[in-house]
Specification:
It is a single chain. With 275 residues, the protein is α+β, with helices and mostly antiparallel strands. It has a domain of 135 residues. It contains 5 helices and 6 strands. The protein has a 6-stranded antiparallel beta sheet with strand order 1-2-6-5-4-3, with helices on both faces. The protein is rod-shaped, with a radius of gyration of 62 Å. The protein starts with 55 loop residues before the first helix and ends in a 5-residue tail after the last helix. About 15% of the residues have low confidence.
Amino acid sequence: MSDLPPYPPRPQGPDSAGITSEPIGETPDPLVTGGIPALPLTVPPTPAPRRARGPRWVLGIIASILVLIAMIAGVIAIDNGALNLSAPSSTSGSANERPRPEVVPGPVPVVTPAPSDVPSATPSTSPVAEGLPADCDALYSDAFKAALAADGAPNTAAGLAYRPTTDSLLEPLLATPGSLRCSWGDPASRGLLTTIASIGKTSAANVVTRLESLGAKCYAEFSGTRCVRSMTGTGGPRGESHLLRNGIWISTYWTSFSPDGYTAELAKHVFPAGR
């Protein structure tokens, strides 16, 4: 044993300074020692368990496909209904009966009127060019028409299928749009065809050159250039008379019918005074 004296007993209660001694062997209380308040203990919340993710994208794709199929089926149903509405309803016969072809009426026969005792000119149907007589009646005076009627009573009710000239190079010029054609005579034996066309001065000069190369006799007459040529054939005498003035061409083809003063009568009405 030690010779040291034992520790004096610890006083109970506060000392002279007012401090109370802790009992030996006891654990100091942190809530009292030093006057420091105890901090609250925070317990973290327990996280909720995660919900297992299902295959939502698969369900979305399936739903989209079903909607698309429903839309397509609706469109097809609408189209079928429209077709059924547009189809004509059958009032008779079976459903498999084929439509009968439409009957197209045949041509209506044309009745040709009886020939008139008074001759008349057969005009062209196309509009006449500006500066030319409006129709065939404007080409002749009443006295000249009466003279033509007295000269064998020519009749043009059936028309005359004459060519305005026998030359294939000149004929297209007489077919110029706006030209005027008038025919007189009997289609079976005698008659004439007069064509009046506006071709211009340059073309008119070329026509004169062409007629001279064909053997026509050309000379100055009626303030223009007149060219005449005669021919013979099995159908009797025939010929051509051409008058060109200021770009206007008066062409007359005749067969077994050449009235006196015919070209002079035309010039008087086609080229009035001052023209």
